[in-house]
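Protein in question kept underneath.
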Amino acid sequence: MEQQPIDPPSEIQQIVMEHDTRAIVQLVIPLIYQKEPLALMTLYKSTPLLWNHDDLRLLEGVSEQAALALFQAKLYQRIHQQTEQMRAELEVARQIQTNLLRQNLPQSDKVRVQACCHAAREVGGDFFEVYSHPQGDLWLAVGDVSGKGVPAALFMASAISVLRRELSQEAPAAPDQ
């Protein structure tokens, strides 16, 4: 089967090819959306007659619809991939935020302390800290950062970091001071 080399066309091309003893007409239609080439649609017919003007107009309309559908499918696929990537990243952020919260609470004979935190979204600005003072007292801190989502989570991480740094100083202030 002989075929002429084809560069990506900017418009419909008809090519007559010889196959065995009969002629085959190949029609190559570019699928273009907003000046972006997406694909080539190739049609064959086993008659030596070329497509007529009405057929070409119809196929041009079909190719425009096919290009639009292909563009939308690619757009949907790209959005779906980005959404999945964002979900995965937010899940990692949720795990990091959960790990920032105290996992093991100090024990005391005087009081029983339990704490948990559930964000309204994947991440949030609520936090708690329980500190066992060297003199035996328990200090509790509960925070609720204004807002929701990633900005609140970042502020929460900063606040809990500063709080822990201050509590870990060599000589923390006595509770009655």
Summary: Strands lie at 13-19, 22-33, 36-45, 126-132, 138-144.
